[in-house]
Amino acid sequence: MTRLTRRAQRLWRLVWALIKGDPRADRVVPPTGFTAWLTLFTAGAMAFLAVFALALSLATGRLADRWASELAQSATIRISAPAEQMERQTEAALRILSQTPGVAEARALSPDEQRALLEPWFGADLPVDSLPIPQLIEVIEARRGFAAEGLRLRLRAEVPGAVFDDHTRWRRPLVRAAGRLRSLGWVSIALITLTTAAMITLAANAALAANAQVIGVLRLVGARDTYIARAFVRRFTIRALTGAVAGTLAGMAAIWALPSAEEASGFLTGLGFAGAGWLAPLPIPLLAGGVAFWATRGAAFRALKDVT
Amino acid sequence: MIELRGVGYSYSGDALLSDISLTLAPGSFHFLTGPSGAGKTTLLKLCYLELKSTSGQVTLFGRPAQEIGRDGIARIRRRIGVVHQDCRFLDHLPVLDNIALPLTVAGHPPEAHREELGELLAWVGLEARARALPPELSGGERQRAALARAIVMSPDVILADEPTGNLDWEMSLRLLTLLTELNRLGKSVLIATHDLNLIRQAKTQVAARVLRIRNRHLVAAGADL
Ligand SMILES: Nc1ncnc2c1ncn2[C@@H]1O[C@H](COP(=O)(O)OP(=O)(O)OP(=O)(O)O)[C@@H](O)[C@H]1O
Ligand SMILES: [Mg+2]
């Protein structure tokens, strides 16, 4: 416990020293123009992309969850039979359902409910009673689920007019795709992080090489490695943080500005953040800063190994 | 404080220096001479660990060189003031900041030493050039600035590599006087130079030992010095 607090204190001192900075220490290493812009731009662009990857991941995750839970919970049985057999077949179907383990509830829709379903297409005064409309039975699944194939076989044997639709047929691949898309989002974020680390390492190496003479002189007058490394680390961390804040804000603004449409219109409009989800991109700049910190630190200590 | 025992060094292939033994005790004053390319600068670099000896034992302030880590080297260099033959400044910083650099990197804010820095600058005659950048200095001005930087930390040992190469005789004598004064305060001084007149002049002021590198070895200089 005390070791943990000591570590936290050390980390905090490190971060604080980094934020507070030492203007004089910063001045002993001259800035290298193009590495500054490279870092700023890389961090900005990568943060922008990361926001989209994150949005994709969260949105597809939400979608997959919703679809999966709907698909797991409900199914429909449609009975098309001559009018005189309708009632008998409906009863038979309900009886079978009541005997099927895993069915929590099965209920034939009333004529009013059926009319309500058809109303948007055919208008309010549809004579449901006199038309040969199929009878719908709503099946609510218990948590542990039922054996859909067994139920289908029994229905086919005993209720010739029944068509069992468990939504699964068309939605299962969608759920799989959504799940896959979610993982791809996370993979993208990992790749973006690695690319950022690589680019910042390259920029830091360039800055270190351009300042090889300076580093040599600093060592000769008694500078410790951490002192020299910090001058570089601080600079790159702040640039990456700044770039990433700008990139993150730009990405969030772009997502916020996506034209919104009805929830029902599907997947694309789901690409966004919902409620507290808007907080999700906030760690991106911190991640970029952390990546810059460790990448530059590593590059600096590697470069210093060759200086006596 | 600095001790070399049977030290050898070769950059690549043939040995440049071999079996060098030298002790820089507190209050000692040494001259190091020898033809150009003999290895004077190399020997100095072995003393402040810019180079690691290829054989023999280097001991700094009682610690074997091979046991001193990188931070230890940094701390030891704060106790050894070096006037480099090529000066080694940060060209983007003004002269004053370069002179204060050892203080800065050791974590001492130069503002706290403004008075000493001013005196030091006046002593080497560079007050008017304090804000100039090193590339704007003349050769002699550079060497004076290098000397100021070497002594700003009040080091125990001062190693000067051709410190008077670009100085007129009057300035050379002033520099010599400063170094002998520091020597009287107990600092150990080693000057590598070709300037035999400077050595002769010094011998009238302090008990200096004169060493010469000849055929890779360190020998006492002849009676003419
Ligand atoms: N980094 C290096 N790599 C290879 N050879 C070197 C290196 N530095 C110096 N030398 C060689 O080692 C020899 C000794 O060099 P050093 O600078 O020690 O001589 P010096 O006695 O200081 O000469 P001078 O009086 O001209 O300053 C020279 O022949 C030089 O060419
Ligand atoms: Mg030399």
UniProtKB/TrEMBL annotation, chain B:
<dbReference type="InterPro" id="IPR003439">
    <property type="entry name" value="ABC_transporter-like_ATP-bd"/>
</dbReference>
<dbReference type="InterPro" id="IPR015854">
    <property type="entry name" value="ABC_transpr_LolD-like"/>
</dbReference>
<dbReference type="GO" id="GO:0005524">
    <property type="term" value="F:ATP binding"/>
</dbReference>
<dbReference type="InterPro" id="IPR003593">
    <property type="entry name" value="AAA+_ATPase"/>
</dbReference>
<keyword id="KW-0547">Nucleotide-binding</keyword>
<protein>
    <submittedName>
        <fullName>ATP-binding cassette domain-containing protein</fullName>
    </submittedName>
</protein>
<dbReference type="Pfam" id="PF00005">
    <property type="entry name" value="ABC_tran"/>
</dbReference>
<dbReference type="GO" id="GO:0022857">
    <property type="term" value="F:transmembrane transporter activity"/>
</dbReference>
<dbReference type="InterPro" id="IPR017871">
    <property type="entry name" value="ABC_transporter-like_CS"/>
</dbReference>
<dbReference type="GO" id="GO:0016887">
    <property type="term" value="F:ATP hydrolysis activity"/>
</dbReference>
<dbReference type="GO" id="GO:0005886">
    <property type="term" value="C:plasma membrane"/>
</dbReference>
<feature type="domain" description="ABC transporter">
    <location>
        <begin position="2"/>
        <end position="225"/>
    </location>
</feature>
<dbReference type="InterPro" id="IPR027417">
    <property type="entry name" value="P-loop_NTPase"/>
</dbReference>
<keyword id="KW-0067">ATP-binding</keyword>
